[in-house]
């Protein structure tokens, strides 16, 4: 089986899983976005997935992503997400390629991204990365600090708060983490009406996430496999 056939088959399986999970939850399929996590995979894989209809792609390292996106400028409808931990000194570089940063977890990072977006003359979509269990050493803002960070983002005028994301911690059942994130986003919406996105669930637990209200599942391994390649 060649790579195009492999990715087509993988995508069909993932789409079937998402469709069944939406049906079981009584939700329309179009409420859930499939975000293809293409980190460490070559630009050629993105081209194949784009040809199969995907438009949303995620990277977690600025240097790799910048080079990859540069090769794929001809994919005019592709939308790029930064999902990895981000140092504020990379803000200017990330804004050059990312349409959305899904891992904003501090006031200083938000301020750096706002400054970079303003300098480029763009409005940058962002998600708060929330640390559901409060262990911020792995990335994420503590739940009790979400309101402060959301306020900084909204007041900047250069960032648009689109919701929140989390990675289910190993110390907690995924269902608990997903439900907690939904509660966080629900609490944001009154003061931040654009903050409606719930990014939760990956290859192994997307069904659970969808059942709890996720609007975006981040899928890497189930789509692309477990082999790690270096982008050309």
TrEMBL record:
Q: Give the protein family.
A: Belongs to the pyridoxal phosphate-binding protein YggS/PROSC family.
Matching PANTHER family: PROLINE SYNTHETASE CO-TRANSCRIBED BACTERIAL HOMOLOG PROTEIN, PYRIDOXAL PHOSPHATE HOMEOSTASIS PROTEIN
Query: Could you tell me which species this protein originates from?
Result: Lentzea cavernae
Q: What does this protein do?
A: Pyridoxal 5'-phosphate (PLP)-binding protein, which is involved in PLP homeostasis.
Residue ranges the record marks as coiled coil: none
Which keywords, in A-to-Z order, does the entry hold?
Pyridoxal phosphate
Signal peptide (UniProt feature, chain positions): none
UniProt key word Protein transport: no
PROSITE patterns xrefs: UPF0001
Q: Which ranges carry the Alanine racemase N-terminal domain? A: 10-226
Q: What is this protein called?
A: Pyridoxal phosphate homeostasis protein
UniProt key word Cytoplasm: no
On the tree of life, the source organism's domain of life is Bacteria
